[in-house]
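Hi Y.,

Following your request, here is the sequence exactly as I used it, all 218 residues.
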Amino acid sequence: MNLPQSLVPWLALLALVPAPVVAQTTPEAPITDSGFSELAVLGLLIYVVYVIFSIAIGVLVLVVSEFVFSGSYVRAIEKRAYDQPVGSGVLGLGVFVGGVVGFILLLLVFLFLMAFGVPEFLGMAGVIPLFGGILFTYVASALGTIVFGSYVLRRFGDGESNLWLALVVGALVVNIPVLNFVLGFLVLFLGMGAMVGQWWSNRQDAKTGPNQHRPVDR
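Below is the corresponding structure, written out as C-alpha cells. Let me know if you'd prefer a different format.
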C-alpha cells in the first residue's frame, strides 16, 4: 500500500523535533587507538552544532521578548520557574504527553477521513497544529535553557543574571553529551510548564480585572 502523499509534510516536520528531545548519540564503532580520536572529533562536532543551534533559537526568543515585551516575558518565565520548579516541570511533562497523544489522535482522524475518500490536500491543514506544536517545543526548550543557565550563574553571584550570558552558559551545559539526555528533557519540561503556567496566570489576571483588589469605598 502506497503512503498517502499528504503524509509527507507530516513526516518532514517530525524531523524538525528539537535536539533536546532526542538524546545525543554517536555511531557504534570499535574503540581502537586510531578510531578513538575520530570518534572524539565527531562527538565534539555534534556538540558544537547542538550548542550553536540552541543559542540561535534562544537569541530569537530573547530578541522577540526584548522588543515586543520589553524583556518582561523571559523574566516572568524565569521567576515562575524559580518559584515553582517542581510544579512547572510536572505541568510541562503533562503538556508534552498531552501534545504527543493529541498528535497521534489527529493523525488517526486524518487517516480515518482518508479512508472515506476525503481529498489528500486537506491533510495539509493538519500540518498547521503540528508546526505550531514544534514551534512551541523549540521556544519552551530555549526558555528552559535560559532559566537553567541563569540558575548556574546565580550559583556564582548575586542578583539577576544577564539573560544573554545565561543562554550561552545554559546551551554549553545542557548539550553536553550523555548529560543531554537528562538535562534536555529537564529544560524542555521546565520551559513548557512555566509557559503554560504564565499564560494561565495572565488569563486569570485578565478575568479578575485591575479593580479586583481596590478598596471598597464606604
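The mean pLDDT is 79.

Thanks again,
Q.
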